[in-house]
Amino acid sequence: MNYMMSEHMGEQGMKYGVNYCKNEIFKRALSLIKEAVQGEKKDEMEYQNLIKMAPTKEQKEIITSIRDNERDHRKWFKEIYRCYTGQNIQDEDYRHKKYDKCNKYDKEEKPKSYIEGIKDALFGELAAVEKYRLIMMGLPYGSCRDLVFHILTDEIKHAIKYNYILTINLCRGKDKMRCSYDECLNIDDVYIPEQF
């Protein structure tokens, strides 16, 4: 068993030499890392569909860069998990797997439209930020925790890029790029997941 030694804030103040392997927050972080590996794989496949649907070279390049980051994130999460547990995480086979409301389509199913796919990707990135914050909070200080911070900030950048793509597509056909909010979109047309 791998014992991680680090500072830990508890109800009684600073504790040194905490056995993180017995810490419930640490165990939860490891469980979330396993979920993150599968989530990054699912995102990579969904983004591949968006690349095929993208209307411009610029948008294809942006989504391709995000997809490539997701591949790196999956690899890094596997390395982090192996660092703490000595075990490998296997990728699930997504060909026959159906997803719940948050992860709503499998490998073969495409979004109803490009815009719908971009909106799903945007909110997926924001949900990943929330999950990765929990992972980061559960890990001891050190290079693995720093790597999770790197992944988390990448997810924020991805959300910003998807927001850019959404904006330029919703404002397409307008006389000017700087259209008003009401001109760009009807708020009734936007799906916002309940968690936000």
From TrEMBL:
GO MF annotation, one: metal ion binding
Pfam families listed in its UniProt record: Rubrerythrin
Residue span(s) of domain Rubrerythrin diiron-binding: 33-162
Entry-linked CDD domains: Ferritin_like (cd00657)
SUPFAM superfamilies: Ferritin-like
InterPro entries according to UniProt: Ferritin-like, Ferritin-like_SF, Rr_diiron-bd_dom
Gene3D superfamilies (UniProt xref): 1.20.1260.10
Name listed for the protein in its UniProt record: Rubrerythrin
Source species of the chain: Clostridium acetireducens DSM 10703
Lineage of producing organism: Bacteria, Bacillati, Bacillota, Clostridia, Eubacteriales
